[in-house]
Amino acid sequence: MEELKTLVEKYSNLTQPMIDSLITETKNIQRNYSYRKFDVFIDVRNDYSHQAVVVYHKVPQIGKSLYQHKVVGKEALQENEPGVFHALETGLPSLGLLAETQESKLIQQRIYPIKFEETVIGVTIIESDISNNILNSFRGKNTNERYNDVSATIQLFGRLNLAVANQLVDSILIFDQFGDLVLANKTALELYKQLGYIGNIIGLDYDNLSLDGTDFRSTFQQLLAGQVNEKLVDKKEFQYLDHYFTIRKLWNKENQQMIVLIQDITEIKIKEAEIISKSVAIREVNHRVKNNLQSVISLLRIQQRRLESPELKQVLNGSISRIMAIASTYELLAKQVSDDTNLSSALSLLVSHFKQLNDTQNIMVKFQIDPAIVIDSDRIVTISIIVNELLQNVVDHAFSHDQAGEIMLTGIADHNIVTISIADNGRGFSMDQVSKGSLGLTIIRSYVADKLKGKLKINSDSSGTTVAFSFNN
C-alpha cells in the first residue's frame, strides 16, 4: 500500500486518517468474492489538474484483465470517465455508464464513492467489457457473421493503437475481398444518407461509395504492397461537395477485409478558418495593449520624477514594475500566432526588463527554465506578475544596500505539474514578521491560488529564501 500512500500524498491534500480509510477499502476489495472476475480500481481527485488519478488496481482472479499495461499513477480524464467525477462531486453511485480506459478501450463502469465521515475522498470502480454493446451499433448483410467481423475490427484497432472510442464515432465501412460493403456502423449509414444516397448501402461496391476518388482495385493493391498482416494507409484529407473529411484504410488479412474509417471534419475546418481570422486580430490587439501599457509606464515615470518623497517614489516604482511585467508578456504575444507561449522566453524578457527598471548591478540573476515548457497566454500573464513580485521582494528586502547577492530562477515540469521557484542567498525573514497587508505577498498568494489553482511554498532562514509555486499545465 506504499504506492497508494505516495500517490495520494503527491496529488491530493487528503489527511493521514483519510489515507488509512483508502487502505482499508483496498483490503475490503481484496476480500470481496463478487469482485473476483473484474478489474477494480480506486481513484482520487488530482488537486493539481482537477482530474482523477488511479491509486490502486486489483486485477481479476478469474479471467483476463482488460488492461495490458500498468495504469496506477495515470490520470482518469473527465471526458473519458464521466461517472468517476459524478461520484466524486455528488457522493452518489454511478452505475452502468460507458467509459474509455487509459488504453483506449470501451468499458462499462460501476462506481461507488468512498467517504471519510461525510467527505468523499475517492471512488471504487468496477469495470466490465461491453463488446456486445459495440456489436449492436453495426449493420450488415449477414447477421451470423456480424459478431466475428466487428470483433476482428475492434481487435485490429487495438493492434494498431487506434483509440476504439474515437473510431466508433467515425464512419466505419467494411468491404469484403471483392469490394462489396458487408458492414457499416450507424454513423456511416447516417453520413451517406446526408450525402443523398437513397436506401440501404449494404451490398454496394467500393467504387459506388468512394468519396475520395479512389477505386477498389488500386486501393486493394496499395494495402497489400506492404506485405504485412495489417497496413494502415496514412490519414488523407479531402473535400467532397461542401464537406471536408479525413479517411484511413486498413487491410485485415485474417478476415480478408478492407476497413475504411471516415471522419467528418467540416466543423473543424470552419472553426480553423475562424481561428486564423481571430488570431490575426488578437495579435493586433496584443500589440496595441503593449503600446498602451508602455504609454502608461511613461506617464508614471514622469510623475515619479516629480515626486520628492522616497517612499512614494518606491511605491510608484512597484506599480511601474507590475505594469512592465504585463507589458513584456504582451510584447511576446504580439509576435506569435499560437496561443501557447514558451515559458523560458517570457521570463527571460521579463527579467531583462526588470533589471533595466531596478538597480540590480550587485545582484546576479541566474536563469534555468526548461525550454520545453509552454503555457497558454492567459496564465503566462499571471505567471509574469507573480515572478515580478517575487523578484521585487528579493531586490527590496533580501540584501542590504550595495550587498552582493544571487537570485536563481528555475522552472521544471514533472509530467503535467510545472514548478517555478525563485531562490536567493539573502538575509531571510520570519513569516511572523511579514505584514499581513503586504500588497506583494497578497498578489502572489491570490494569483497562485485563484488564477493558477496551484500551491505556494515559502522557505526562509538566515541563509536565504526560496519561494516556489506549482500548478497543473
Automatic annotation (TrEMBL):
It catalyses: ATP + protein L-histidine = ADP + protein N-phospho-L-histidine. SUPFAM superfamilies: ATPase domain of HSP90 chaperone/DNA topoisomerase II/histidine kinase. Its EC number is 2.7.13.3. Residues 284-473 form the Histidine kinase domain. It is an enzyme of class 2 (transferase). InterPro entries: H_kinase_PdtaS_GAF_sf (IPR038424), HATPase_C_sf (IPR036890), HATPase_dom (IPR003594), His_kinase_dom (IPR005467), PdtaS_GAF (IPR022066), Sig_transdc_His_kin_sub2_dim/P (IPR011495). Signal peptide: none annotated. One of its GO terms (molecular function) is ATP binding. It comes from the Bacteria. Gene3D superfamilies: GAF domain, Histidine kinase-like ATPase, C-terminal domain, PAS domain. PROSITE patterns: HIS_KIN. Keywords: ATP-binding, Kinase, Nucleotide-binding, Phosphoprotein, Transferase, Two-component regulatory system. One of its GO terms (biological process) is phosphorelay signal transduction system. This is histidine kinase. It comes from Loigolactobacillus coryniformis.
